[in-house]
């Protein structure tokens, strides 16, 4: 029979056994997660453990009282090899690129977010020399801006290819029937020469505008929209401009907006006047209007009326009106428009005028570069500022959608 020898545990040994027992769960968790890569602990977690050990070491063995609860480590510190779900991960780093009036942030999972400064006035400018050639290589220091005659400070600047939302408006009147094949091809070539991120829609207009392809980057959809030809004898150009500007305002995916008009005659059926159409475009803060007037076989008087209207629409918004001498020149002009759109300077400033002062404000932009001679800047001549929404006018509520043929 084995001999049982009674013995008494000393308080110091009891403390050692209890300390070992308390350590076992932590060791087990470490062994369980040994195949995982333990994340780097944060500084607060690393600093908390020595404090707990120090408090235990500071208690003399002679003062040990088994009837009192043993001090426990703080439950606010995560000691697992794998962080608990309640641990808040640091916010992902963001990459910010500032563009006139906007800031693009790259956040978690590579998702980009666009923040737009609605109080910044943005001017899209094309700069050419006296021979009409595009001028590159300018900086913000080469530009000066005045609003209502008061100098403004340029706060954002960019030069290069900025994606656009574009409306392509094509005259569908009877006189255009024999020209549509060449015009459609030129429009498609312009789309192919544009920024791949551009989005466009197609409006065919005669007595009223028809949205035959909604805003898209799909070239097949745009080509189908161009193929919808239902020629009529009248031309409601100004109504088409107003409706298309509203369409861009409601659905544009890019701040930069463009309208391209291709027509062969003067407006003779719109409910809007030319001045109302121009004002509507300006009240919406854009878009830039480019025009191609196929007026080479029109009556001289009618051609002069149409030319003046297209020039006013384009010049007041910062675009350009082209008047080819034959249908053969349309494709080359379309390529020139595409280049013009992709090679612009974007200037942004905050007006020195209070936002509470609404109404129309004139804008003048000049560029100077001593070695480049006289430079010509094409940009919009002004804009409407309202402390609330743009003033409403009687308008076409939406672009009509053509029915399948």
- pLDDT below 50 for ≥5 consecutive residues: which ranges? 1-9, 14-61, 78-101, 111-117, 388-398, 400-405
* Strand arrangement in the largest pleated sheet: 10-9-8-11-12-13
What is the total tally of β strands?
17
The CATH homologous superfamily of the domain at 161-342 corresponds to: von Willebrand factor, type A domain
CATH topology of the domain at 161-342: Rossmann fold
Separation, N- and C-terminal Cα atoms: 109 Å
Order of helices and strands: HHEEEEEEEEHEEHHEHEHEHEEEE
Counting DSSP H or I runs of 4 or more residues, the number of helices is: 8
* Major beta sheet summary: 6 strands, mixed
Q: What class, by secondary structure content? A: alpha+beta
Compact summary:
The chain is of the alpha+beta class. 28% of the residues lie in helices and 24% in strands.
How would you characterize the overall build of this protein?
- Mean pLDDT is about 75; it is low at about 1-10, about 15-60, about 80-100, about 110-115, about 390-400 and about 400-405.
- Helices cover about 30% and strands about 25% of the residues.
- It has eight helices and 17 strands.
- The strands form four sheets. It has a six-stranded mixed sheet with strand order 10-9-8-11-12-13, sandwiched between helices. A four-stranded antiparallel sheet has the order 7-14-4-16.
- It has a domain at about 160-340: Rossmann fold.
- The longest helix has 22 residues, at about 10-30.
């Amino acid at each position: 029979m084995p001999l049982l020898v009674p013995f008494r545990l000393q308080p110091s040994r009891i403390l050692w056994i209890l300390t070992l027992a308390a350590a076992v769960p932590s060791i087990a968790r470490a062994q369980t997660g040994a195949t995982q890569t333990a994340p780097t602990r944060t500084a607060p977690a690393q600093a908390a453990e020595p404090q707990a050990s120090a408090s235990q070491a500071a208690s003399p063995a002679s003062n040990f009282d088994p009837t009192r609860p043993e001090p426990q480590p703080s439950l606010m510190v995560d000691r697992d090899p794998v962080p608990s779900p309640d641990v808040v991960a640091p916010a992902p780093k963001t990459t910010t690129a500032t563009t006139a009036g906007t800031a693009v942030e790259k956040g978690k999972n590579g998702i980009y977010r666009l923040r737009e400064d609605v109080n910044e006035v943005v001017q899209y400018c094309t700069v050419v020399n006296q021979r009409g050639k595009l001028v590159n290589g300018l900086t913000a220091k080469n530009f000066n801006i005045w609003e209502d005659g008061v100098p403004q400070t340029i706060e954002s600047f960019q030069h290069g290819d900025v994606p656009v939302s574009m409306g392509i408006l094509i005259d569908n009147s009877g006189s255009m029937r024999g020209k549509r094949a060449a015009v459609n091809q030129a429009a498609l070539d312009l789309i192919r020469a544009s920024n791949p991120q551009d989005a466009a829609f197609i409006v065919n207009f005669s007595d009223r505008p028809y949205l035959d392809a909604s805003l898209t980057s799909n070239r097949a959809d745009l080509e189908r929209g161009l193929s919808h030809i239902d020629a009529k004898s009248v031309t409601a150009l100004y109504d088409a401009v107003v409706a298309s500007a509203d369409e861009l305002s409601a659905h544009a995916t890019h701040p930069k907006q463009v309208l391209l008009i291709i027509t062969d005659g003067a407006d003779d059926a719109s409910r809007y006047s030319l001045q109302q159409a121009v004002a509507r475009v300006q009240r919406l803060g854009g878009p830039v209007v480019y025009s191609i007037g196929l007026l080479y076989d029109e009556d001289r008087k009618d051609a002069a009326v149409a030319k003046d209207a297209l020039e006013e629409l384009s010049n007041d918004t910062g675009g350009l009106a082209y008047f080819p001498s034959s249908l053969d020149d349309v494709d080359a002009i379309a390529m020139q428009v595409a280049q013009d759109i992709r090679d612009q300077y974007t200037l942004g400033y905050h007006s020195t005028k209070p936002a509470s002062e609404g109404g129309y404000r004139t804008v003048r932009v000049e560029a100077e570069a001593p070695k480049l001679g006289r430079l010509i800047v094409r940009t919009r001549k002004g804009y409407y500022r309202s402390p609330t929404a743009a003033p409403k006018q009687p308008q076409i509520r939406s672009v009509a959608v053509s029915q399948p043929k």
